[in-house]
Amino acid sequence: MEVYNSEQDQVEAIKAWWDKNGKLVIVAIIVLLVSVFGWRSWQDRQLQIAEDASLAYYQMMETAAFDDGRAIEIGRHIVGEFSSTVYASMASMALARLAVQQGDLDSAEAHLRTVTQQRRIPELQIVASLRLAQVLFAQGRADEALTQLQGNGGTLQAAFDELRGDILRAQGQHEQARDAYRKAIAGFGAQPERLALVEMKQNDLAESDKP
């Protein structure tokens, strides 16, 4: 390390260093400040977007109780304006439900497919997959519905198995349907009402197979 002979030598050395590197230091400081304030601005913007999306979703849910048309308008606004938030997926689920209520299964399918292709909330994606399979089955597209049920059902696995049993039974594949119902019964062990319903379906299937 260089040893300075006097304070004046130190001053002159600093001035020389600054003349050589000062501009780079200023640029670095500016970049740092822009990065910091830019990051904070981005965070503030994301928070504002989330708050706006939350408010719009709340309005949608409140409105759906008495005005489906207005609720659909708000839902479409959420999906379009707040697509980067979880509220867009939640709004799509609500729009699918409203579409089913109106008998518009094609729109319901479109909304549900949007959610199944997103990864924001895995649990919501599973629910959307189950609902989509139900819609496809109602449209007479049994094979597509079964394909939709091939994924992991997570906490809804028993419901996946029950619907699979319903579809297979409708296709006349009774042995496979019984196997699906058995899995559903095992999964619904802690839900007496659902358990009883699947057991009834299984018993009806057994009766229908009697000669």
Mean pLDDT: 81
**Total count of strands:** 0
* Spatial gap, N to C terminus: 101 Å
Largest sheet: none
Beta-strand level of the residues, as a percent range? Answer: under 5%
* 3D shape: elongated
Weakly predicted, low-confidence segments: 1-5
Derived from helix and strand composition plus strand pairing, the structural class reads mainly alpha
Helix percentage: over 70%
Tally of helical segments: 9
Order of helices and strands: HHHHHHHHH
Radius of gyration: 30 Å
Description:
This protein has helices at residues 7-64, 68-81, 86-101, 105-116, 122-138, 142-148, 157-170, 174-187, 192-208. Residues 1-5 have low confidence and may be disordered. It is 80% helix and 0% strand. The protein has 211 residues and is mainly α.
